[in-house]
Design a protein that fits this description.
The chain is of the alpha/beta class. It folds into 2 domains: about 10-85, lambda repressor-like DNA-binding domains (434 Repressor (Amino-terminal Domain)); about 90-275, Endonuclease, Chain A. Helix content is about 50%, strand content about 10%. The protein has helices at about 10-25, 30-40, 40-50, 55-65, 75-85, 90-100, 120-130, 140-155, 170-175, 180-195, 245-260, 265-275; strands at about 105-110, 160-170, 200-205, 215-220, 225-230, 235-240. The protein has a 6-stranded mixed β-sheet with strand order 3-2-1-4-5-6, sandwiched between helices. Strand 5 and strand 6 form a beta hairpin. Helix 7 packs antiparallel against helix 8. The chain is globular and about 65 Å long.
Length: about 280
């Protein structure tokens, strides 16, 4: 059987793959054995080991369980997250890790639908435009979309977290990816609102200066009831656990929910926009 030599210094993906092969062989496992343990195909394992396929968060976590690395300092999950510091804002990969375990998630966004509510096509359209501007590479764009899909799947767990989302009206009216992509995205928002563990509201333009936020704000309540915030500008992300700065954001978020359109009114607005796009 042909064995491809690996160069761990070629890329972060190559380093990840070389380490995965080394860990597998240290247990005396073939690729088929690891594939069975992580519930992927042996072809997928081979592609990850040789750097031809980008590893995902789900794959990394399953590899940690299979190889007995969960809870150690050398997990593949950690390696996966470190790979993304080059294409994601500082603090964001760490925030996503906490989001995947939070009891309550509160999202506010203007101009763009929040990541956990985006369709793949909507997210891909955003990343394609970033590639066209020369801000990231096509490979980084792929990493970002896959990272988002893994982030979304982490929110579909038992017990389900409570997810509150308030969207500035601009999120609905800014066309991303063309009519078909936007129609599907608006339909996704309506489906989100129907779930038993979610709340969706729109902050209409008529709120004017009463809207307390002008940029992305995410707030987490963790299982131990501690609070965390993540705010983002064009070039920086900031993760904060200090109560004296997180509590004012939480207070403002509750005020925003009070003044924003109700879920029924918000869904009706989205339905009207869908009819205008179709």
């Amino acid at each position: 059987m042909n064995r491809k030599d690996l160069n761990p210094e070629a890329s972060p993906e190559a380093a990840y793959g070389a380490r995965l092969r080394s860990a597998r062989e240290a247990r005396g496992w073939r690729q088929q054995d690891l594939a069975a343990a992580v519930k992927y195909t042996s072809g997928h394992v081979s592609a990850v080991e040789t750097g031809r396929k980008i590893p995902t968060l789900r794959f990394s976590r399953r590899a940690d369980v299979a190889l007995g690395l969960t809870g150690t300092v050398d997990t593949f999950e950690r390696a996966f997250r470190e790979m993304y510091h080059g294409s994601l804002l500082e603090g964001f990969p760490e925030y996503v890790g906490h989001e995947g375990r939070a009891a309550e998630v509160r999202l506010f966004e203007s101009m763009l639908v929040p990541g956990p509510l985006q369709t793949r096509e909507y997210a891909q359209a955003l990343e394609n435009s970033t590639v066209q501007r020369g801000d990231i590479t096509p490979e980084q764009a792929t990493e970002r979309v896959e990272f988002l899909m893994e982030r979304q799947s982490a929110l579909h767990r038992t017990p389900s977290p409570l997810i509150f989302a308030v969207l500035d009206e601009s999120c609905l009216r800014r066309s991303i990816g063309g009519p078909a992509v936007m129609e599907a995205q608006l339909a996704r928002l309506i489906e989100f609102a129907k779930q038993s563990n979610t709340s969706l509201q729109v902050s209409p333009f008529s709120m004017g200066e009463r809207q307390p936020f002008s940029r992305l704000v995410h707030l987490l309540t963790l299982p131990d009831r501690s609070l965390m915030s993540y705010v983002e500008s064009q070039t920086q992300g900031q993760l904060d656990r200090e109560l004296n700065s997180v509590l004012p954001l939480m207070k403002n978020y509750h005020q925003l929910q009070t003044e924003a359109a109700s879920q029924a009114e918000s869904v009706a607005m989205i339905e009207r926009l869908r009819k205008g796009i179709s």
